[in-house]
Amino acid sequence: MVMGLYLSACSENKNEAAATSKEMDAPVDIVEKQKVKVSLFSWPGYAFWFIAKEKNLAPELDLEISIIEDPYESFAQMGAGQLDITCSTVEYGPIAADTGGAVKLVAYTNPSYGTDKIILAPGINSAQDLKGKEVAVLEGGLTQIFFGIWLEQNGMAFNDVKYVNLVMDDAVAAMVSGKVAGAEFWEPFGSKVLSTLQGSRAVATSSEDYWIKSGLLGDGMYMSSAFLKDKPELAVKAFDAYWKAVDWWLKNPEEGAKIIAEGLKFPVEDVYAVIGPQGPPFKGGIYVFNFEEAAKFFGVIEGEPPLGLKHGHINEHWNLTSDWWLKFGLIKEKRSLETGVDFAPMKGVAELRK
Fold first, then answer.
1. Whole-prediction pTM
2. Distances in Å between the alpha carbon of 302 and those of 58, 292, 342?
3. What is the pLDDT of residues 33-51, one digit of tens each?
4. Domain CATH for 236
5. Of 330, 297, 320, which Cα lies nearest the Cα of 210?
6. What is the pLDDT of residues 88-140, one digit of tens each?
7. In the listed set 174, 205, 236, which residue is the last one of a domain according to the structure?
8. Where are the beta strands (DSSP E) in the chain?
9. Closest residue by Cα to residue 243 from 289, 300, 200
């Protein structure tokens, strides 16, 4: 009897094993991930992509994230078909439109809320003391417009100084070594200069009411025109992944900051200095928009964005930056908003969230 039970059990186990083997041999549907190439420079305000990747918030996407410190290199790679998306400051749209439209702005992601500062070197006591001297900015970037407007507000012409094109690490070194008389910095670089260079001082910050309400200083997301045209559904999925990452961070700010810090190779304290420990509003850093706030800024959904900004404020921003690029000679003519901005990803995600 025992032997009979044993043989019966063996037979059952054998049948189960055969069935399991057949199941293992059966074809399995594997969804092939679609690669999306994203770049950013070392700045916590752009680094929500690391959360999207780490937390697999877009399972159908293979997010390939690279850090490129010069935004113009990212724009060039987008034009050459080597990148799909980049995050950078929000003023490049008019330049892209004037140079062939290979890149389109698709979102204004966060306004500066105190993170940007114009800092003068020791011994430079006024805007007038800068006449003929070198100042560090990212040429063709918001830092240059910020400096130009500040000079005019203080009785100088925007071209009374010599602009030196430097990324943040190099700008800090130039400032501390005395090679430049002033510079525009964002956090955590501005605080490092002020704490290191005795006698340096901040003379303008983006926490001031004028800069906040202008919406001038902020970050954006760009997509290549080819990506938008050839893979519109993929563009919407990637766009949605970014806003899902922001939503996740808002609910998990501490863990999110750690993921961003690891992705950027930043101390977590430097991440907090930019995006804050608990999310917006964070005076002294940036105000990270959620999707609804960004869509209101673009005028895609109804309502006013925060900080006194206007519904559809992207129109005013486009006009302001276009006017300044004409002054700096970086564009030949002022073009319409639609030549440099693509609303399709924003509208696509708005539809998904209804």
1. 0.88
2. 27, 9, 18
3. 999 999 999 999 999 999 9
4. 3.40.190.10
5. 320
6. 999 999 999 999 899 999 999 999 999 999 999 999 999 999 999 999 999 99
7. 205
8. 34-40, 61-67, 85-89, 103-111, 116-120, 134-137, 162-165, 182-186, 201-205, 218-224
9. 289
